[in-house]
Amino acid sequence: MPNTALLDQLMTALRCLPGVGAKSAQRMAYHLLERDREGGRVLSRVLVEAMERIGHCSQCRTLSEQELCQLCANPRRDQSQLCIVENPADQAIIEQAADYQGGYFVLGGHLSPLDGIGPKEIGLDLLQERFSSGGVKEVILATNPTVEGEATAQYIHDMAQQFGIRTTRIAQGVPMGGELEYVDGATLAHAIRGRSEF
Amino acid sequence: MSRINFIPAYVLHRRDYQNSSLLVELFTPNEGRLPAIAKGAKSGRSSKAILLQPFLPLRVSLSGRGEIKSLLEAEQNGQPFKLTGDRLYCGFYLNELIVRLIERGDPFPSLFVHYCQNLAQLASDEPIGQILRQFELLLLTELGYGLLLDHTADSGEPIREELLYHYLIEVGPVVSSSDSSGMKIHGSTLIGLHHGKSLSKQSANEAKQLMRFVLSHYLGDKPLKSRELFAGPTGG
Protein backbone atom coordinates (compact mmCIF):
# COMPACT_ATOMS: atom_id res chain seq x y z
CA MET A 1 0.00 0.00 0.00
CA PRO A 2 1.47 3.38 -0.94
CA ASN A 3 1.57 5.73 2.03
CA THR A 4 -0.70 8.74 2.00
CA ALA A 5 0.83 12.16 2.36
CA LEU A 6 -0.54 12.52 5.88
CA LEU A 7 0.84 9.16 6.95
CA ASP A 8 4.24 10.18 5.66
CA GLN A 9 4.01 13.41 7.60
CA LEU A 10 3.12 11.51 10.78
CA MET A 11 6.13 9.21 10.39
CA THR A 12 8.47 12.10 9.75
CA ALA A 13 7.07 13.94 12.78
CA LEU A 14 7.55 10.92 15.07
CA ARG A 15 11.20 10.83 14.18
CA CYS A 16 11.82 13.96 16.25
CA LEU A 17 11.73 11.70 19.32
CA PRO A 18 15.13 10.57 20.59
CA GLY A 19 16.11 7.07 19.45
CA VAL A 20 13.31 6.86 16.88
CA GLY A 21 14.44 6.18 13.34
CA ALA A 22 12.49 5.52 10.17
CA LYS A 23 11.58 1.94 11.12
CA SER A 24 10.36 2.69 14.64
CA ALA A 25 8.41 5.72 13.41
CA GLN A 26 6.63 3.51 10.90
CA ARG A 27 5.77 0.96 13.58
CA MET A 28 4.44 3.65 15.90
CA ALA A 29 2.34 5.26 13.19
CA TYR A 30 0.75 1.95 12.14
CA HIS A 31 0.15 0.99 15.74
CA LEU A 32 -1.67 4.23 16.54
CA LEU A 33 -3.79 4.12 13.39
CA GLU A 34 -4.64 0.44 13.39
CA ARG A 35 -4.72 -0.53 17.04
CA ASP A 36 -5.02 2.46 19.31
CA ARG A 37 -6.79 5.46 17.81
CA GLU A 38 -8.02 6.58 21.23
CA GLY A 39 -4.50 6.52 22.64
CA GLY A 40 -3.35 8.54 19.65
CA ARG A 41 -6.05 11.15 20.22
CA VAL A 42 -5.16 11.48 23.91
CA LEU A 43 -1.49 11.77 22.97
CA SER A 44 -2.13 14.50 20.43
CA ARG A 45 -4.35 16.47 22.82
CA VAL A 46 -1.92 16.29 25.73
CA LEU A 47 1.03 16.98 23.47
CA VAL A 48 -0.52 20.16 22.09
CA GLU A 49 -1.51 21.33 25.54
CA ALA A 50 1.90 20.57 27.03
CA MET A 51 3.73 22.33 24.20
CA GLU A 52 1.53 25.40 24.62
CA ARG A 53 1.33 25.62 28.38
CA ILE A 54 4.55 24.30 29.87
CA GLY A 55 7.20 26.96 30.00
CA HIS A 56 10.13 27.73 32.24
CA CYS A 57 9.91 29.02 35.79
CA SER A 58 10.99 32.63 35.74
CA GLN A 59 13.10 32.14 38.84
CA CYS A 60 14.77 28.74 38.56
CA ARG A 61 14.22 27.88 34.87
CA THR A 62 12.78 24.45 35.56
CA LEU A 63 9.79 23.29 33.51
CA SER A 64 6.61 24.78 34.90
CA GLU A 65 3.06 25.62 33.92
CA GLN A 66 2.99 28.66 36.15
CA GLU A 67 5.17 31.76 36.06
CA LEU A 68 6.73 30.47 39.30
CA CYS A 69 7.15 26.72 39.78
CA GLN A 70 5.76 24.99 42.88
CA LEU A 71 9.15 24.86 44.57
CA CYS A 72 9.92 28.52 44.04
CA ALA A 73 6.44 29.54 45.17
CA ASN A 74 6.65 27.46 48.34
CA PRO A 75 7.37 29.90 51.21
CA ARG A 76 8.83 27.12 53.35
CA ARG A 77 11.72 26.48 50.99
CA ASP A 78 14.87 28.31 51.98
CA GLN A 79 15.71 30.34 48.89
CA SER A 80 18.98 31.59 50.37
CA GLN A 81 20.40 28.15 49.53
CA LEU A 82 20.57 27.51 45.81
CA CYS A 83 21.32 24.12 44.27
CA ILE A 84 22.54 24.33 40.67
CA VAL A 85 21.69 21.33 38.48
CA GLU A 86 22.08 20.65 34.78
CA ASN A 87 18.54 19.54 33.98
CA PRO A 88 15.07 18.98 35.45
CA ALA A 89 15.75 15.23 35.77
CA ASP A 90 18.66 15.97 38.13
CA GLN A 91 16.43 18.27 40.12
CA ALA A 92 13.76 15.58 40.39
CA ILE A 93 16.20 12.95 41.65
CA ILE A 94 17.63 15.29 44.30
CA GLU A 95 14.10 16.17 45.41
CA GLN A 96 13.27 12.47 45.73
CA ALA A 97 16.44 11.23 47.33
CA ALA A 98 17.85 13.98 49.45
CA ASP A 99 16.43 15.87 52.36
CA TYR A 100 17.02 19.23 50.77
CA GLN A 101 14.91 22.24 51.66
CA GLY A 102 16.52 24.99 49.59
CA GLY A 103 15.86 26.35 46.12
CA TYR A 104 17.13 25.26 42.72
CA PHE A 105 18.46 26.73 39.55
CA VAL A 106 18.15 24.53 36.47
CA LEU A 107 20.70 25.28 33.76
CA GLY A 108 19.28 23.07 31.02
CA GLY A 109 22.72 21.84 29.98
CA HIS A 110 26.38 22.60 30.63
CA LEU A 111 28.99 24.84 29.06
CA SER A 112 30.07 23.15 25.86
CA PRO A 113 31.61 25.45 23.27
CA LEU A 114 31.63 22.72 20.62
CA ASP A 115 27.86 22.37 20.86
CA GLY A 116 27.52 26.13 20.66
CA ILE A 117 26.51 26.34 24.31
CA GLY A 118 28.00 29.30 26.13
CA PRO A 119 27.07 31.07 29.38
CA LYS A 120 23.96 32.76 27.94
CA GLU A 121 22.48 29.55 26.54
CA ILE A 122 22.32 28.00 30.01
CA GLY A 123 20.80 31.08 31.61
CA LEU A 124 23.84 32.29 33.50
CA ASP A 125 22.87 35.91 32.85
CA LEU A 126 19.65 35.22 34.77
CA LEU A 127 21.63 33.54 37.55
CA GLN A 128 23.92 36.56 37.76
CA GLU A 129 20.89 38.83 38.18
CA ARG A 130 19.67 36.54 40.94
CA PHE A 131 23.06 36.79 42.68
CA SER A 132 23.17 40.56 42.35
CA SER A 133 19.68 41.04 43.75
CA GLY A 134 20.95 39.55 47.02
CA GLY A 135 19.33 36.94 49.24
CA VAL A 136 21.47 34.01 48.10
CA LYS A 137 23.89 32.90 50.82
CA GLU A 138 25.08 29.54 49.55
CA VAL A 139 25.38 28.03 46.09
CA ILE A 140 25.53 24.23 45.91
CA LEU A 141 27.12 23.14 42.65
CA ALA A 142 25.50 19.87 41.61
CA THR A 143 26.58 19.78 37.98
CA ASN A 144 27.81 16.43 36.65
CA PRO A 145 31.40 15.38 37.42
CA THR A 146 32.42 15.56 33.75
CA VAL A 147 34.92 18.00 32.30
CA GLU A 148 32.10 20.19 31.00
CA GLY A 149 30.21 19.96 34.27
CA GLU A 150 33.34 21.02 36.16
CA ALA A 151 33.88 23.93 33.77
CA THR A 152 30.32 25.03 34.40
CA ALA A 153 30.77 24.71 38.16
CA GLN A 154 33.98 26.72 37.98
CA TYR A 155 32.32 29.47 35.95
CA ILE A 156 29.43 29.77 38.40
CA HIS A 157 31.87 29.70 41.32
CA ASP A 158 33.76 32.65 39.81
CA MET A 159 30.47 34.48 39.35
CA ALA A 160 29.37 33.83 42.95
CA GLN A 161 32.75 35.02 44.26
CA GLN A 162 32.09 38.45 42.78
CA PHE A 163 29.08 38.77 45.04
CA GLY A 164 30.80 37.19 48.05
CA ILE A 165 28.51 34.15 47.97
CA ARG A 166 29.74 30.90 49.52
CA THR A 167 29.96 28.03 47.03
CA THR A 168 30.03 24.32 47.81
CA ARG A 169 30.42 21.33 45.51
CA ILE A 170 28.58 18.04 46.00
CA ALA A 171 30.89 15.28 47.25
CA GLN A 172 32.21 12.62 44.92
CA GLY A 173 33.23 9.16 45.97
CA VAL A 174 32.41 5.58 46.66
CA PRO A 175 28.78 4.56 46.09
CA MET A 176 26.75 3.22 49.03
CA GLY A 177 26.94 -0.55 49.35
CA GLY A 178 29.77 -0.65 46.82
CA GLU A 179 33.09 -2.35 47.14
CA LEU A 180 36.33 -0.40 46.86
CA GLU A 181 37.82 -3.08 44.67
CA TYR A 182 35.34 -2.33 41.91
CA VAL A 183 35.43 1.45 42.07
CA ASP A 184 37.31 3.08 39.18
CA GLY A 185 40.63 4.77 39.92
CA ALA A 186 39.54 8.33 39.20
CA THR A 187 36.58 8.17 41.57
CA LEU A 188 38.63 6.49 44.28
CA ALA A 189 41.36 9.15 43.99
CA HIS A 190 38.64 11.77 44.44
CA ALA A 191 37.22 9.95 47.43
CA ILE A 192 40.61 9.83 49.14
CA ARG A 193 41.34 13.47 48.41
CA GLY A 194 37.93 14.59 49.62
CA ARG A 195 37.88 12.43 52.76
CA SER A 196 36.00 13.88 55.69
CA GLU A 197 36.39 13.83 59.48
CA PHE A 198 34.91 10.66 60.99
CA MET B 1 40.50 0.15 8.13
CA SER B 2 38.72 -2.78 9.68
CA ARG B 3 40.38 -2.76 13.07
CA ILE B 4 43.11 -0.71 14.70
CA ASN B 5 44.49 -1.61 18.06
CA PHE B 6 45.44 0.68 20.90
CA ILE B 7 46.33 3.90 19.17
CA PRO B 8 46.91 7.06 21.20
CA ALA B 9 43.88 9.33 21.23
CA TYR B 10 42.19 12.25 22.96
CA VAL B 11 38.49 12.90 23.19
CA LEU B 12 37.75 16.33 21.75
CA HIS B 13 34.05 16.24 22.37
CA ARG B 14 31.38 13.79 23.42
CA ARG B 15 27.65 13.66 23.30
CA ASP B 16 24.98 11.20 24.38
CA TYR B 17 23.91 8.68 21.81
CA GLN B 18 20.78 6.60 22.28
CA ASN B 19 20.07 5.42 25.81
CA SER B 20 23.42 4.42 27.14
CA SER B 21 25.98 5.08 24.41
CA LEU B 22 28.30 7.97 23.68
CA LEU B 23 29.29 9.50 20.38
CA VAL B 24 32.84 10.80 20.75
CA GLU B 25 34.97 12.89 18.46
CA LEU B 26 38.53 11.57 18.74
CA PHE B 27 41.86 13.14 17.83
CA THR B 28 44.55 10.61 16.88
CA PRO B 29 47.99 11.04 15.26
CA ASN B 30 47.54 9.03 12.06
CA GLU B 31 43.79 8.77 11.65
CA GLY B 32 43.35 12.45 12.49
CA ARG B 33 39.97 13.52 13.75
CA LEU B 34 37.33 10.83 13.67
CA PRO B 35 33.94 10.08 15.22
CA ALA B 36 33.36 6.84 17.12
CA ILE B 37 30.47 5.30 18.98
CA ALA B 38 31.11 3.78 22.39
CA LYS B 39 28.26 1.33 22.84
CA GLY B 40 26.86 1.09 26.32
CA ALA B 41 29.51 3.44 27.69
CA LYS B 42 27.07 4.97 30.14
CA SER B 43 25.54 1.76 31.42
CA GLY B 44 26.38 0.90 34.99
CA ARG B 45 28.91 -1.83 34.38
CA SER B 46 31.08 0.07 31.92
CA SER B 47 33.84 2.39 32.99
CA LYS B 48 34.19 3.87 29.53
CA ALA B 49 32.15 6.99 30.32
CA ILE B 50 34.70 7.90 33.00
CA LEU B 51 37.59 7.51 30.56
CA LEU B 52 36.00 9.11 27.53
CA GLN B 53 36.52 12.68 28.61
CA PRO B 54 38.54 15.55 27.15
CA PHE B 55 42.15 16.13 28.26
CA LEU B 56 42.73 12.53 29.33
CA PRO B 57 45.42 10.65 27.37
CA LEU B 58 43.91 7.42 26.06
CA ARG B 59 44.69 4.38 23.98
CA VAL B 60 41.73 3.14 22.00
CA SER B 61 40.86 0.23 19.73
CA LEU B 62 38.51 0.97 16.89
CA SER B 63 36.79 -1.01 14.22
CA GLY B 64 34.50 -0.38 11.28
CA ARG B 65 34.74 0.59 7.65
CA GLY B 66 32.35 3.53 7.57
CA GLU B 67 33.02 7.09 8.62
CA ILE B 68 31.82 6.45 12.15
CA LYS B 69 33.88 3.78 13.89
CA SER B 70 33.00 1.57 16.82
CA LEU B 71 35.06 2.15 19.90
CA LEU B 72 35.88 -1.32 21.20
CA GLU B 73 38.25 -0.59 24.03
CA ALA B 74 39.68 2.43 25.79
CA GLU B 75 42.34 2.58 28.43
CA GLN B 76 44.07 5.41 30.22
CA ASN B 77 47.48 6.28 28.81
CA GLY B 78 48.87 8.63 31.43
CA GLN B 79 47.64 11.06 34.03
CA PRO B 80 44.79 13.41 33.10
CA PHE B 81 45.75 17.05 32.61
CA LYS B 82 44.31 19.01 35.48
CA LEU B 83 43.02 22.19 33.90
CA THR B 84 41.05 24.72 35.90
CA GLY B 85 39.57 28.14 35.28
CA ASP B 86 40.93 30.00 32.28
CA ARG B 87 43.29 27.14 31.51
CA LEU B 88 40.35 24.77 31.16
CA TYR B 89 38.62 27.23 28.83
CA CYS B 90 41.88 27.31 26.81
CA GLY B 91 41.66 23.54 26.50
CA PHE B 92 38.14 23.90 25.11
CA TYR B 93 39.49 26.54 22.75
CA LEU B 94 42.14 24.17 21.37
CA ASN B 95 39.53 21.46 20.89
CA GLU B 96 37.16 23.84 19.17
CA LEU B 97 39.92 25.00 16.80
CA ILE B 98 40.76 21.40 15.89
CA VAL B 99 37.13 20.44 15.29
CA ARG B 100 36.40 23.57 13.29
CA LEU B 101 39.51 23.62 11.11
CA ILE B 102 40.65 20.04 10.59
CA GLU B 103 38.84 17.79 8.14
CA ARG B 104 37.92 14.35 9.42
CA GLY B 105 40.37 11.61 8.47
CA ASP B 106 43.41 13.72 7.54
CA PRO B 107 46.50 12.65 9.52
CA PHE B 108 48.23 15.26 11.70
CA PRO B 109 50.95 13.42 13.63
CA SER B 110 53.05 16.45 14.53
CA LEU B 111 50.02 18.52 15.52
CA PHE B 112 49.02 15.65 17.81
CA VAL B 113 52.41 15.70 19.54
CA HIS B 114 52.13 19.46 19.89
CA TYR B 115 48.61 19.18 21.27
CA CYS B 116 49.84 16.83 24.03
CA GLN B 117 52.64 19.24 24.88
CA ASN B 118 50.26 22.20 24.92
CA LEU B 119 47.92 20.42 27.31
CA ALA B 120 50.86 19.72 29.60
CA GLN B 121 51.88 23.38 29.38
CA LEU B 122 48.33 24.47 30.15
CA ALA B 123 48.37 22.23 33.20
CA SER B 124 51.60 23.93 34.36
CA ASP B 125 51.90 27.65 34.99
CA GLU B 126 53.36 28.79 31.68
CA PRO B 127 51.78 31.94 30.28
CA ILE B 128 48.55 31.13 28.46
CA GLY B 129 48.98 33.55 25.57
CA GLN B 130 52.27 32.07 24.42
CA ILE B 131 50.89 28.49 24.47
CA LEU B 132 47.84 29.43 22.43
CA ARG B 133 49.81 31.49 19.86
CA GLN B 134 52.24 28.63 19.24
CA PHE B 135 49.39 26.17 18.79
CA GLU B 136 47.51 28.49 16.44
CA LEU B 137 50.64 29.07 14.33
CA LEU B 138 51.41 25.37 14.07
CA LEU B 139 47.80 24.50 13.27
CA LEU B 140 47.78 27.03 10.42
CA THR B 141 51.12 25.76 9.12
CA GLU B 142 49.89 22.17 9.21
CA LEU B 143 46.81 23.19 7.27
CA GLY B 144 48.98 24.85 4.65
CA TYR B 145 48.06 28.39 5.69
CA GLY B 146 51.33 29.11 7.52
CA LEU B 147 51.96 32.75 8.36
CA LEU B 148 54.80 34.76 6.94
CA LEU B 149 56.48 36.35 9.96
CA ASP B 150 60.17 36.94 9.24
CA HIS B 151 60.17 38.87 5.99
CA THR B 152 57.80 41.04 4.02
CA ALA B 153 55.56 39.58 1.34
CA ASP B 154 56.14 42.28 -1.28
CA SER B 155 59.85 43.16 -1.16
CA GLY B 156 61.04 40.07 0.67
CA GLU B 157 63.11 42.14 3.09
CA PRO B 158 63.60 40.95 6.68
CA ILE B 159 61.08 42.36 9.16
CA ARG B 160 62.49 45.22 11.22
CA GLU B 161 61.45 45.61 14.83
CA GLU B 162 60.78 49.33 14.77
CA LEU B 163 58.56 49.44 11.66
CA LEU B 164 54.79 49.23 11.44
CA TYR B 165 53.46 46.75 8.85
CA HIS B 166 50.17 45.89 7.23
CA TYR B 167 49.28 42.24 7.53
CA LEU B 168 47.25 40.98 4.59
CA ILE B 169 45.43 37.64 4.79
CA GLU B 170 46.98 34.89 2.64
CA VAL B 171 49.74 37.34 1.66
CA GLY B 172 51.68 38.39 4.74
CA PRO B 173 53.19 41.58 6.09
CA VAL B 174 53.74 44.46 3.65
CA VAL B 175 55.33 47.82 4.36
CA SER B 176 52.44 49.87 3.07
CA SER B 177 49.30 48.96 1.27
CA SER B 178 46.40 50.59 -0.48
CA ASP B 179 44.33 47.59 0.58
CA SER B 180 42.54 48.61 3.76
CA SER B 181 41.48 45.05 4.65
CA GLY B 182 44.80 44.31 6.34
CA MET B 183 45.72 44.73 9.98
CA LYS B 184 48.38 47.08 11.34
CA ILE B 185 51.06 45.31 13.33
CA HIS B 186 54.51 46.15 14.74
CA GLY B 187 57.64 44.42 13.42
CA SER B 188 58.64 43.55 16.98
CA THR B 189 55.44 41.50 17.43
CA LEU B 190 56.00 39.59 14.17
CA ILE B 191 59.58 38.74 15.15
CA GLY B 192 58.54 37.75 18.67
CA LEU B 193 55.87 35.43 17.27
CA HIS B 194 58.31 33.97 14.77
CA HIS B 195 60.77 32.99 17.48
CA GLY B 196 58.10 31.93 19.96
CA LYS B 197 59.50 34.36 22.51
CA SER B 198 57.55 35.70 25.45
CA LEU B 199 56.04 39.00 24.39
CA SER B 200 55.51 42.31 26.12
CA LYS B 201 51.94 43.06 27.15
CA GLN B 202 51.32 45.27 24.15
CA SER B 203 52.89 42.82 21.72
CA ALA B 204 51.02 39.89 23.22
CA ASN B 205 47.79 41.77 22.70
CA GLU B 206 48.76 42.58 19.12
CA ALA B 207 49.70 38.97 18.45
CA LYS B 208 46.31 37.87 19.80
CA GLN B 209 44.54 40.33 17.50
CA LEU B 210 46.57 39.12 14.52
CA MET B 211 45.72 35.46 15.15
CA ARG B 212 42.06 36.36 15.64
CA PHE B 213 42.11 38.30 12.40
CA VAL B 214 43.70 35.44 10.44
CA LEU B 215 41.69 32.65 12.08
CA SER B 216 38.37 34.42 11.51
CA HIS B 217 39.14 34.32 7.79
CA TYR B 218 39.32 30.52 7.86
CA LEU B 219 36.57 30.00 10.41
CA GLY B 220 33.96 31.89 8.42
CA ASP B 221 30.94 33.61 9.93
CA LYS B 222 30.43 31.40 12.97
CA PRO B 223 32.55 32.76 15.82
CA LEU B 224 34.36 30.50 18.29
CA LYS B 225 32.11 29.81 21.25
CA SER B 226 34.90 29.13 23.73
CA ARG B 227 35.95 32.78 23.55
CA GLU B 228 32.75 33.72 25.38
CA LEU B 229 34.03 31.86 28.41
CA PHE B 230 37.08 34.13 28.67
CA ALA B 231 34.92 37.21 28.39
CA GLY B 232 33.06 36.63 31.61
CA PRO B 233 32.01 36.64 34.31
CA THR B 234 35.03 38.49 35.66
CA GLY B 235 35.79 40.00 32.27
CA GLY B 236 39.26 38.38 32.18
TrEMBL record, chain A:
What family is this protein classified in?
Answer: Belongs to the RecR family.
Domain Toprim as annotated: residue spans:
80-175
> Could you identify this protein by its name?
Recombination protein RecR
Q: Where are the zinc fingers (C4-type)?
A: 57-72
Gene symbol here is recR
The role this protein plays is:
May play a role in DNA repair. It seems to be involved in an RecBC-independent recombinational process of DNA repair. It may act with RecF and RecO.
Record-linked InterPro entries? DNA_Rcmb_RecR, Rcmb_RecR, Rcmb_RecR_Znf, TOPRIM_dom, TOPRIM_RecR
**Entry GO MF terms:** DNA binding; zinc ion binding
What GO biological process, any one, is recorded here?
DNA recombination
Keywords, alphabetical: DNA damage, DNA recombination, DNA repair, Metal-binding, Zinc, Zinc-finger
Q: List the top taxonomic levels of the source.
A: Bacteria, Pseudomonadati, Pseudomonadota, Gammaproteobacteria, Chromatiales
Q: Does the keyword Metal-binding apply?
A: yes
A Pfam family this chain is assigned to: RecR_HhH
Decide whether keyword Manganese is in the record: no
Q: Which CDD domains match?
A: TOPRIM_recR
